[in-house]
Amino acid sequence: MKKDDHSVGLVTPKNIFFAEPPNEFQLESGKKLGPINIRYETYGVLNVDRSNAILLLHAFSGDAHAAGYLSETDKTPGWWDAMVGPGKAFDTDKYFLICSNIIGGCQGSTGPSSINPQTGKPYALSFPLITINDMVLTQNELLNHLGISELFAVAGGSMGGMQALEWSVYFPEKVRSAIILASTARMTAQGIAFNALSRNAIMSDFRWQNGNYYGKEIPARGLAIARMAGHITYLSDEAMHKKFGRRLQSREEYGYDFSNEFEVESYLQYQGDKFVERFDANSYIYISKAMDYFDLGARFGGLNEAFAGTRAKFLVVSYSSDWLYPSYQSKEIVFTLTKNRKDVSYIEINCPYGHDSFLLETDRQSSIISSFLGGIRG
Amino acid sequence: MKKDDHSVGLVTPKNIFFAEPPNEFQLESGKKLGPINIRYETYGVLNVDRSNAILLLHAFSGDAHAAGYLSETDKTPGWWDAMVGPGKAFDTDKYFLICSNIIGGCQGSTGPSSINPQTGKPYALSFPLITINDMVLTQNELLNHLGISELFAVAGGSMGGMQALEWSVYFPEKVRSAIILASTARMTAQGIAFNALSRNAIMSDFRWQNGNYYGKEIPARGLAIARMAGHITYLSDEAMHKKFGRRLQSREEYGYDFSNEFEVESYLQYQGDKFVERFDANSYIYISKAMDYFDLGARFGGLNEAFAGTRAKFLVVSYSSDWLYPSYQSKEIVFTLTKNRKDVSYIEINCPYGHDSFLLETDRQSSIISSFLGGIRG
Average pLDDT of A188-197? Predict the structure, then answer.
């Protein structure tokens, strides 16, 4: 744990449990699920009139641990630590921040690796398919548990931005503002294609065994390849060029063999192998499907109609080098909100880091978010 | 075989054999290889002074069969049939066209699936690594065999463009003009990353067996995944949106399962499965490495120095939606040639098809290439 005046310090993850049978949770697919456990963390203090709560929504491989440290010896803080703490963009001196692991995940909340109480074994593929709407509805259960009926803001990047959008249209009366970073109102064919590629890599690993690998050898190669594909899409051509170029890994000349000769190969292998230690392969395929299904306007007959009932103020941020959710996709959100005479601020940040910018470009993001939140009436 | 006045009609592939031991072929890696077989086709007639030969250079998964039909019942013509024939861009009434399968390939030329005469078994990974320069030097053997000492033009797209560039700097005295489509002077980190992803997919398939799958079950899943990754990079975001959007495959509503629900998934699966029937997995990993190694300027101390000795007139064409070899990479070639006071024409074609444009955008390409070739002194 690093000493830092702006750190939230030590945090303790908590859990809620709900949807005990027969009161199972109704999923968007029509399937039912229960009981459900949602892992969450909070930072800062809920004020007396319960009006300062902000829900932070994590991206694909994120978790409930957005900020601070889990123990005195923990070396790495939460995934958005640069943005959450005293005096930071999500200022814990002002706001009560909540972050929970999504349903279908593998970092504390109920997902395919959880034990199915009916069988005593992990769900594996008997786990029902989930959607972004299911994530939001289970987060709403958490808010009910915490006694929070209105959110000062919802905020997230990438798949977190999809959840923030879904919150703003599904619970318009509960959301005062929404911060959408590096995200989209619907998955495009190219996005689905990359997810399909990753699922294929996992499901083609013979260790995957139709999802029943728990307690046995895991489909590590397939999952690592999926993560490699992910990392290629998270970085930009320019970022990769600056970070690696054509530099060789620990050698001066081509080896003319099939080892990881180039630094970029070594990097991808490392990212893939590291990911396998912390992420469940089945969660990967479930979450990727939830993203593929995401089409904010579909339920309403169009994006225009979807936004008609929202009451939130919006902040939409895109990043010039993000080619996974390029700026034109953010602009579609902004254009449609504007057409609906909704209050929306839009900024395209010019930076080379690609899709990962919402995790890296924290300085400029912070001043934008601080000032946006400062303009929301308390 | 379709009736078409502008078809080259029936063609017969031919072969040359060279580098019989002990006169083995010296590869760029330092390794030796022999004997070597190069499969090729020709279209049109070589003129008396042997000055009208154009070498067509194929891309990653291409072959010697650039135009025409292999039999009376053949339904699909060669890969660049729209460009090669009487009155077409590569006009067989004027030019003698040659196209050969690259060394390392699997469509008639010596590659990892060929029988190693020393063992009587396929080379598999005992095949030496090859480079773009090796492709060019073996093509030069073919020209020697045909008695051609000077090429009216070299022309290719993608990896074919890399070979055309290599021809122009390695054999400056032999190349009068070079047509470089949708290509690059060096593989970028992002390009290497995609190739590494594909190699990983193949080599992670347990059927790959360290390359020794010949006569057994082939690594079909891994090779199909590699091809899927390829196809994602060959199409643009816009092309995928237009071609597939979010349309579902043979259904009206989400099925909430892991089948290929979206059309784009089905398309990728189909392309992957079809590819496996015609392409060798080891050839895939060898050819991808040859591309990774490609850095035209490296041998000369820089791209500027590489181009210093070229005598060719250049035509460089890039495509606005090609994100695998984006226009800035073509512009670097053009800029460096211009700095060297070389004769270069450059056109960026505005079209949505992505990298595949050089195979699809044949109308506009044809008029550009015809007029370029018309300006080369006979």
Answer: 98
A29–B254 CB contact, under 8 Å: yes
CA–CA separation, A82 vs A73, rounded Å?
A: 19
In the predicted model, what is the mean pLDDT of residues A141-147?
Answer: 98
Mean pLDDT to the nearest integer, A179-204: 98
Packing angle of the helix pair A132-146, A159-170 (nearest 10 deg) = 70
pLDDT tier for residue A2 given thresholds of 50, 70 and 90: low
Query: Which residues of chain B lie closer than 8 angstroms to A112, CB-CB?
Result: none
Considering only CB atoms, which chain B residues are within 8 Å of A219? none
pLDDT tens-digit series, residues A306-337: 999 999 999 999 999 999 999 999 999 999 99
Mean pLDDT of chain A: 97
pLDDT in tens, A340-377: 999 999 999 999 999 999 999 999 999 999 999 999 97
Q: Do B31 and A256 touch (CB under 8 A)?
A: yes
* Selection from B239, B224, B330, B323 nearest residue B277 by Cα: B224
Contact status, residue B372 vs residue B179, Cβ threshold 8 Å: yes
Angle CA B224–B228–B234, to nearest 5 = 140
For the segment A27-31, the average pLDDT, to the nearest whole number, is 98
Q: Does B200 touch chain A (CB under 8 A)?
A: yes
Look at residue A5 and tell me whether its pLDDT is greater than 90: no
Q: Do residues B255 and A230 lie in contact, with contact meaning Cβ atoms separated by under 8 Å? A: no
Residue to mutate among B246, B268, B285, with most A CBs inside 10 A, is B246
Catalytic residues of B: 158, 322, 355
Residues pairing with B186 in the sheet: B295
Q: What are the 10-residue block averages of pLDDT along chain B, 378 residues in total?
A: 81 97 95 97 98 98 97 96 97 98 98 96 98 98 98 98 98 98 98 98 98 98 98 97 96 95 98 97 98 97 97 98 98 98 98 95 95 89
Cβ pair A232:B194 closer than 8 A: yes
Contacts (Cβ under 8 Å, ≥6 apart) of A6: A85, A86, A87, A88
DSSP A65-125: --SSBSSTT--S--TTTTTEETTSSEETTT-EEEEEPPTT-SSSS--TTSEETTTTEE-GG
Answer whether A237 sits within 8 Å of B190, measured CB to CB: yes
Contact call for A197 and B228, based on CB within 8 A: yes
| Residue A378 confidence (pLDDT) above 70 | no
Give the max Cα distance, chain A: 67
Q: Which CATH number fits domain B14-187+295-374: 3.30.590.10, 3.30.565.10, 3.20.20.220, 3.40.50.1820?
A: 3.40.50.1820
Q: Do the domains at B14-187+295-374 and B192-287 have one common CATH topology? A: no
Of 1.10.1740.110, 3.40.50.980, 2.40.30.10, 3.20.20.300, the CATH number of A192-287 is: 1.10.1740.110
Question: Using a CB-CB distance cutoff of 8 angstroms, which residues of chain A are in contact with residue B229?
Answer: 197, 229
Q: By three-state DSSP, how is residue A129 classified?
A: coil
A254 touches chain B (CB under 8 A): yes
pLDDT digits (tens, 9 = 90+) for A82-124: 999 999 999 999 999 999 999 999 999 999 999 999 999 999 9
CB contacts of B268 in chain A (<8 Å) are 193, 196-197
Structure tokens belonging to residue A249 = 């890994």
Q: Mutate which of B29, B265, B286, B322 to test chain A, going by most A C-beta atoms within 10 A?
A: B265
> Between chains, do B29 and A292 touch, taking CB under 8 Å as contact?
no
* Domain spans in chain A, listed from the N-terminal domain onward: 14-187+296-374, 192-287
The residue among A287, A125, A134 whose CA lies nearest residue A214 is A125
Structurally, at CATH architecture level, domain A14-187+296-374 sits in 3-Layer(aba) Sandwich (3.40)
* Min Cα–Cα distance to chain A from B188, Å: 6
